[in-house]
Design goal:
heterodimer, A: 0% helix, B: 8-stranded antiparallel β-sheet, 6-stranded antiparallel β-barrel, 6 helices, 21 strands
């Protein structure tokens, strides 16, 4: 079971180097975090079906949170658009 | 004696037989710590927390405070205020198991120039490039001038479901005492790693630990942590400390929290210390008479409580063997 995503900035640019974490999960999850590539994409595995909350952060942007429901044997695709946060450290 | 699942494995030249498993001769004295001249600790009793400007670990009774009322529609949000974790959205609103940050976010940021002092400089930000060239972040901690301990899944990826990703990672950049762009000790790149068969062959979370070996003795400049084997009743009364580099905070920043150990198992230590992705591999450590000793390797967040791989006899023996094997 996979969650795939592409991360954009508010102006539509692909975001390289955004960090993707699990904020909540139905089971224990490894506390490692994925980092988006040049194409703004990431792929993370989930260990069990259920609802997961993903958090996505990039410098200069606020934390983006999204809930995904993962069914057995399926993959979920998400598109995340980060909003600029002037209070956040610059990119 | 350690079982075969604790058999050390490496992506490089294998450890010679006998180096990695020692006889079980009883409780071990903790390893000597490195530099202990900087960084204070508050030691109210026999256990201590780090002395961080007014920081006190919350009581368990206060852990659930600040939950957001039910019914809020947060199916998809982009809310900078989430950065502060003023509420536990998932648990209260969606019926999740508790999150890796439980209730109020207890973590406190360790900033420069403090990150250049011991013990903070012995905690390292890890930038990981997996076999498929995907990038990840984690945390590691020095146990010698050139050996760091981390989670097994930081050095060896299992069950990713992505072609070409599983297996030993390609490389890890190690950045001691990082505070965002500030890297007071520079960085080193490693391509030599260790874990154990229980993780690499069986993906058993109870064997989720590993090591990173550096060519240069960067740890001579940062100091390192001791580690020890402790009994259940001892650990159950320990205040555990964790500092690492969580991905839900500004890039490359170090965050610290402490709480009493919740419970222990033969191969796991459970605690309610807030963590997030990126803190895998962090030292779970105690402070005794001003010295810091690893008791577990943080690895998992999520359901009920967070947890790390306990430094039991077999783990301890492997850590000692890895130190010895790469003694400079």
């Amino acid at each position: 079971m996979l969650v795939r995503g592409v991360v954009h900035s508010a102006d539509g640019e692909l975001v390289d180097g955004a960090v993707v974490v699990f904020l909540a999960a139905p089971v224990d999850v490894p506390d490692i975090a994925a980092v988006t590539g040049d194409d703004g994409s990431f792929v993370v595995a989930v260990p069990a079906p259920g609802r997961y909350r993903l958090g996505i952060r990039a410098d200069g942007h606020g934390l983006y949170a999204v809930d995904v429901d993962v069914d057995p044997g399926t993959e979920v695709d998400i598109r995340a658009t980060l909003e600029r946060d002037d209070a956040a450290p610059p990119a | 004696m350690a079982g075969k699942l604790d058999k050390s494995v490496t992506n490089g030249k294998p450890v010679e037989s006998g180096d990695e498993v020692a006889p079980d001769t009883g409780p071990a004295a903790p390893e000597a710590v490195g530099t202990e001249t900087e960084g204070g600790a508050i030691e109210p009793g026999s256990e201590a927390i780090e002395d961080v400007d007014g920081y006190r670990p919350p009581t368990l009774a206060g852990a659930g405070e600040g939950f957001r009322p039910e019914g809020a529609d947060l199916a998809e949000v982009s809310d900078p205020s989430l950065d502060d974790y003023q509420f536990d959205i998932g648990n209260a609103s969606f019926g999740f198991g508790p999150e890796t940050v439980h209730g109020m976010d207890d973590r406190v940021q360790i900033t420069s120039p403090r990150t250049g002092n011991y013990p903070w400089r012995a905690h390292c930000s890890l930038l990981i490039k997996a076999a498929d060239n995907s990038n990840w972040i984690g945390t590691g901690w020095f146990i010698s001038p050139n050996v760091l301990i981390t989670a097994g899944h930081v050095v060896y990826i299992n069950g990713s479901g992505v072609q070409g990703r599983d297996g030993w990672v390609n490389q890890i950049r190690v950045i001691p005492g990082r505070d965002g762009a500030d890297k007071p000790y520079g960085e080193a790149v490693s391509t030599k790693f260790y874990s154990v068969r229980g993780w690499t062959e069986q993906a058993n979370p109870e064997y989720d630990y590993g090591a990173i070996v550096l060519d240069a003795p960067l740890g001579n400049r940062t100091g390192w942590f001791g580690f020890g084997v402790y009994g259940d009743s001892d650990l159950e009364n320990v205040t555990a400390n964790i500092s690492g580099y969580p991905g839900d905070k500004p890039s490359g920043t170090q965050w610290y929290a402490a709480r009493r150990v919740d419970s222990v198992g033969p191969r796991k230590v459970f605690y309610d210390i807030d963590t997030a992705g990126g803190q895998s591999g962090s030292a779970v450590y105690r402070i005794k008479r001003g010295a810091r000793y690893g008791i577990a390797v943080h690895a998992y967040g999520g359901a009920v409580v967070n947890s790390g791989t306990r430094i039991n006899r077999a783990v301890y023996d492997n850590m000692k063997a890895w130190k010895k094997k790469h003694k400079l």
